[in-house]
Design brief:
single chain, alpha/beta, Spore Coat Polysaccharide Biosynthesis Protein SpsA, Chain A, 4 domains, 10-stranded mixed β-sheet, 21 strands
């Protein structure tokens, strides 16, 4: 191949989009040993670390070509600041045209004997290019590469993982011709942990395909470099630091579904045009398979079935032409590709949907105080086949940063951010994203026992149940003590059977099973089949979901073990700010009633529902602070008791006679008489505190001049009320 083709392609690249600035290209380019290409697009957060590592190289005879691809953030200003201080930094400022164009333009403008690459969100160790250049010169190599680290950085830590690019020790520190040793094509595919002889690239016109965007364009470059190289080497040292905590990295972009397919069509065309296709079908098939399956793993859930059908068609077409070569595939990979070819829908349902056993859905809103403990309890679960779907519901504190930190450590964590819509909407979004066989719901200030998901999953699958309920602990955030919550699932009133449904329950289903979602595991297909959703209200958003699921489930099972820790006495809990949504419980009750009517079972469950509704009304009334308690009283007295079906019932209708007595007392308070309401509240407080006689003489210091007994305070309050009314 001559240089003429290279010059033609270089001209096309140079004239593709406007170039606005060339900075420091008037500097001397003599004796440049390595040209370092840095592609830049909206990386202001990481760019300085990258540039610092480049200018700190022990090899001084370098140029650093930064190609700004139309950044809209502060990246260009950062580049210019560095270029003003170090003339080895050269800037090409151009319109956006994608990663392939950036890399080709940077390499075309390079003057170094060898060319290296640093991605702008990565960085390199100081000795990298000196070491690589020394080895390349000593052996006159077309390219030389080394091992690398993948890293995640948090506020107080750097976690890095060593990666052997060539896998086996016998592949290192020796000259290899990839054409003669196709094992090289099974090595980790990247372009940035080595350097390439510039003359070798130009002579063979080795370039990136200039497709739009920033995904997979390095595949073609990598492929062509391996096809044409005569002398390569891999070093067993590691110099390159590859970032894995940038959520905007193209590796994390799930929207570019067909990018790999376009790149591999271009690679195929290259092989065919140069009459070398037959020589490289084995490595082409392997890399095509790897990158298609990688794409499948990262694209959005709703696109996976469509994509499987697309790649199934492609693989079948290759097979029909005799071009699917699986000689480098493992047995598992062979079975997998032929399964996709034979029945992509079966593969989708059996492998894609079922490979995740449990999807844990975690709404997060300003939860930084307890979020780490919550996430730790998830990552430490003995059941490993889980996904953790974190819905950042418009947090204003450090919650999102903590989520990103944990996602960088464990790819089972998935983050979806949205404007604040409440836990109900967040859980519904989580359901729509979930891919597991079963669904678990966790509140961000609570935490799981280590074996919770494992034991619940084993129980629900053993019984083939729609819902598995388990016991929980109440964890006091102040005293740091816990005790089993005996009221959440009242087992003594529930059927003594391994599996049951609502028809087997003779007691009040609404009162004997709490309307909490987090102490239950749900079969996802059951939830989807019945289109079960959480109410999108601020509080009590799980009541409807839980009770309707219990009413619709054919198989319910109980695991008699406490597996969940519910944290109480938490200042940030929504339950401590019910004044902002004091009417939500009523709307939840009415939604349950509406569903009972729609299911044509209201007559059967009317008494159970009315008794539960009265209990809920009384609890909210007695625990709500003034003045909203009075607002609730007015609503109950004038409208809500009636619409819930509570009024005009005989005393015998009610399961709890004390609840009935409270109902009568409330109904006897005139709506327009605030004094009668206040008298009721004072008498209620006295009756509630059975030890009032014991405490009425306890002195309480009002200020430095006055101390009153409890009884005197009550009398004074009553006097003030009479005087000022």
């Amino acid at each position: 191949m001559t240089y003429q083709k290279f010059e033609q392609e270089k001209s096309k690249t140079l004239n593709k989009v406007p170039i606005h600035e060339l900075i420091n290209f008037n500097q001397s380019n003599e004796n440049v040993k390595v040209s370092i290409i840095i592609p830049v697009y909206n990386v202001e957060e990481y760019l300085e670390e990258c540039l610092d590592s480049a200018i700190s190289q022990t090899l001084q005879d370098i140029e650093i070509i930064c190609v700004n691809d139309g950044s809209t953030d502060n990246s260009l200003n950062i580049l210019k600041d560095y270029a003003s201080r170090d003339k080895r930094i050269r800037i090409i400022n151009k319109d956006n045209a994608g990663y392939g164009h950036v890399m080709n333009l940077g390499m075309d403008m390079a003057s170094g004997e060898y060319i290296g690459i640093i991605e702008s969100d990565d960085y390199v160790l100081p000795e990298m290019f000196e070491r690589l250049y020394s080895v390349a010169k000593e052996h006159d190599l077309d390219f030389v590469k080394s091992n690398f680290y993948r890293f995640h950085r948090g506020k107080d830590y750097l976690e890095k993982t060593f990666n052997k690019i060539a896998f086996k020790d016998e592949n290192y520190n020796k000259i290899i011709c990839p054409r003669e040793n196709h094992d090289c094509f099974t090595f980790i595919m990247n372009t940035w942990c080595g350097i390439y002889k510039r003359d070798f690239l130009q002579k063979n016109c080795i370039r990136h395909f200039e497709t739009p965007g920033a995904s997979f364009q390095d595949n073609g470059f990598w492929f062509k470099a391996n096809v044409y190289a005569d002398k390569t080497m891999y070093l067993n040292d590691a110099f390159y630091m590859n970032r894995r905590d940038n959520p905007d990295s193209s590796v994390n972009d799930s929207g570019k579904m067909m990018c790999a397919n376009r790149e591999y069509q271009l690679i195929y065309d290259f092989l065919e045009k140069n009459a070398i296709k037959e020589d490289f079908l084995d490595v082409y098939s392997l890399k095509q398979y790897h990158n298609y399956l990688f794409t499948l793993s990262r694209i959005a859930k709703e696109n996976k079935k469509e994509y499987l059908n697309i790649i199934s068609k492609e693989f079948n077409q290759s097979n029909q032409k005799g071009e699917l070569d699986t000689s480098l595939f493992s047995l598992r990979q062979i079975n997998e590709i032929y399964w996709i070819m034979r029945d992509p829908e079966e593969f989708y349902y059996r492998e894609i949907l079922s490979q995740i056993k449990v999807s844990v859905i975690l709404p997060v809103y300003n939860s930084q105080k307890h979020l780490r403990e919550c996430l730790d309890s998830l990552l430490n679960q003995s059941l490993r086949e889980i996904e953790i779907i974190c819905i950042n519901d418009g947090s204003k504190d450090n919650s999102l940063e903590i989520l990103k930190e944990y996602k960088a450590k464990d790819n089972r964590i998935k983050i979806h951010s949205q404007e604040n819509k409440g836990a109900g909407a967040a859980r519904n979004k989580g359901i729509s994203l979930a891919m597991g066989e079963y669904l678990s719901f966790l509140d961000a200030d609570d935490f799981f026992e280590k074996d919770m998901l494992k034991l619940a999953y084993e129980k629900i699958t053993k019984e083939n149940a729609d819902i598995c309920m388990f016991e929980s602990y109440t964890y006091d955030n102040i005293t740091k003590t816990r005790e089993i919550n005996t009221n959440a699932i009242k087992k003594k009133f529930l059927p003594k059977k391994d599996v049951f449904n609502r028809n087997d329950i003779s007691s009040n289903i609404f009162k004997d099973i709490r309307g909490w979602a987090w102490d239950k595991l749900y079969k996802r297909s059951f939830v989807l089949n019945y289109n079960l959703k959480f109410q999108e209200i601020r509080t009590t958003n799980d009541m409807y979901f839980v009770f309707v699921s219990l009413l619709k489930a054919n198989r319910i099972t109980i695991l008699e073990k406490a597996l969940y820790n519910q944290r109480v006495n938490v200042s940030t809990s929504l339950s401590n700010t019910r004044e902002l949504s004091w009417d939500c419980f009523y709307h939840a009750l009415m939604k349950v009633k509406e569903e009972l009517i729609n299911m044509n079972i209201y007559d059967k469950y009317e008494r159970q529902f009315v008794n539960y509704a009265l209990l809920s009304c009384i609890w909210n009334f007695e625990t709500l602070r003034e003045p909203l308690a009075y607002s609730l009283f007015e609503k109950l007295r004038s409208e809500w008791f009636e619409s819930l079906g509570i009024l005009n019932r005989e005393k015998e209708y009610f399961e709890n006679k004390n609840d009935y007595n409270i109902l009568m007392e409330i109904m006897n308070i005139p709506l327009d008489d605030e004094n009668a309401y206040k008298d009721y509240q004072i008498n209620y407080w006295k009756n509630k505190n059975n030890n009032y006689e014991d405490i009425k003489n306890v002195p309480i210091k009002i200020n430095e001049h006055e101390t009153l007994s409890v009884n005197e305070i009550v009398e004074k309050l009553c006097w003030y009320r009479k005087e000022y009314n």
